[in-house]
Amino acid sequence: MSPVVVYLLLLKATLTSFSGLGSLALIHTDFVEQRHVLTDHQLNTAVVAGRTGPGPNGVYVVSVGYLVAGVPGAIAGFAAVVTPAFLVLPLMYWAGKRADSPRVKSAIRAVVIASAGLLLSVSMPLARDAITGTFALVLVLASALVLAFTKTDSAWVMLGAALIGLAAKLFS
Amino acid sequence: MRPTLGPLTWLYFRVGNTTFGGGDPTMAALQRELVEQKRWLTREDFALAYSLARITPGTNIIAFCAASAVRILGVWGAIAAVLAETAPSAVLAVLLTLGFESWAKNPVMMAAIAGTVAAVTGMMWASVWLLVRPYLSDAQSLLRVVLLGGGAFLAAWKFGVTPVPVIAIAAAIGFFWRDSE
Hints:
Chain A is mainly α. Chain A has eight helices and no strands. Chain A is flat and about 50 Å long. Chain B is mostly helical. Chain B has helices at residues 5-16, 23-37, 43-54, 60-104, 107-132, 139-157, 163-176. In chain B, helix 1 packs antiparallel against helix 2 (23-37), helix 2 (23-37) packs across helix 4 and helix 6 packs antiparallel against helix 7. Chain B is globular. Chains A and B meet through helix 3, helix 4, helix 5, helix 6 and helix 7 of A and helix 1, helix 2, helix 3, helix 4 and helix 5 of B.
């Protein structure tokens, strides 16, 4: 499959979605159902790999590109993932010029507060997966307290939690 | 204080490629670094980038990187942030796709991942606190936090409302209900 076609098909999927995995339905239709260049199993593996590694869930699109067209396909997939992000730049310039009015500032602060509520809501499914017992609960709370009330780098907390999880498994 | 391109790129690279769990935990980590620790971005700029990234097609966190970095260091900052945040994890995603079958069955590896998932949850809760803490100065501010933050949480969690209408409604409420700051 031509990398240009891969790019255009994946771009269609990323441009018409508003979250990392929002493009999944269209990719399934285009690559699995219509063109038969990808199996359901391959698509699932790409999605799981995207969710397992660090970074955005949307990078599974790069794996899809690789699976259908090798390295050129992966490059096409990467381009399709990052292209829509640059649409935000003119919006930032437009909105930034209007951000000095007291009413606009108040609206932005309201959005900050609402975004905290949204962040809490998206943490709930993750919390359900993470808190599998008392040990995990202590790890969650300890991480929250350290990060909320100290200036410890979050990467160290991640690494520490991974090592604690590893040690708990090895010594259990 | 504005950073140069090197430290900015390094920060997006480091946070974007060490934070597991998708875009929201990454955004929480970036909020902590950019707003609370480095102070390269104000809370208002964070909120603007957050809101506009939500209404931009594609992966929200990548748009957030572009939006936040353009505010700090212009278009080159945005390009550097997007590439630094996305390219290494994209390569890793391909490698994981190839080796996933054997890796997913390794209980020791999965235990380490479970540890990071716990830390990511804690980090998101810490970010919620860091975001609302400055707005808890008096009774009216507290009421705003409870109504706007609690309302957004309930709308998304309990009723499955997507972020875009929640942000739009919060912005409209904030526009007409001026805060005391």
